[in-house]
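Box 3.1 — From sequence to structure: Ubiquitin 3 binding protein But2 C-terminal domain-containing protein
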Amino acid sequence: MKHETSYPPSDSGSPYEDREDASLLGRGDGANVKRLGLNEKSSKLDLLGRTATLVVVLCTVVDLILVLYLGLHQRGLVAPTPPSVVSEEDLEVQMPYINLAQLYAEKPHLKTNIAPIVTHSRAFVQIDQAHPDKVLPPYAPLRPLSEGLVPEYDRRLILTDTISTVAQFRVADFGMESCALRVTILEDSKDTLIGPGEPATIDVYKLPVLKKMKMHNLSYATRPQGATFFGTMTLAFNSSYELPAYPCKSGTHETFEFRCSQPGCNIEVTGIGGKAFGLYMVQYQTI
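Predicted structure (token representation):
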């Protein structure tokens, strides 16, 4: 008797058909994975290409702007920015004496008594309120010598109702930083002192300038602003008058303007060379 082999029923109808379908499904999944990998690589390449294109475009725009700027600059349409240069007058004067103040404070026995020193002005310059733009050069008379003419170092304090005098002093030495203005007129002086009363008086104004000033270009219109009243000096023959001393820093410049105290004055006081007469500054010891 012949036996027949039985198989369980299936929806597909044949076991061979099931194996074939499974093989086909496996091949389809691998193709999909490969296709996804290719798509991912393609998207990365696209992103890289777009980024590179954007960088190239930006560089091109920047280059065009620079070329345009250089072209306008050469034609003078764009003004060049001037370099920041500090003038010689604005440079801070460094202290050449290091720790000397501390040395004298710690060892007072090293201190020596120093007599007051006389400091003359760099120049006396007149400015005229009636002619505010007029520049009056410093007075410099010429003295004849065998070699020719040389200017004398005369300092002229000239004051009228409209003319005032600006003088600038350089504070000389360290440790002599107490300054006072003094005017000395000799008995046989040829100076002129005419005022509404006897003796004549002048007002002193301090200008806020501690650095070297260009005196040869000074006029009433260009004088430093912010003058403050400093004191009144009395002028008389065969006498000296000194204002109270005040602190001053070595290496700086002290600038003053001298004016008539009252209308109707006419004053001319002259100082010559290094002699202590006329208008000058006295420095007293501070260490």
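Summary of the box: The CA atoms of residues 180 and 245 lie 4 Å apart.
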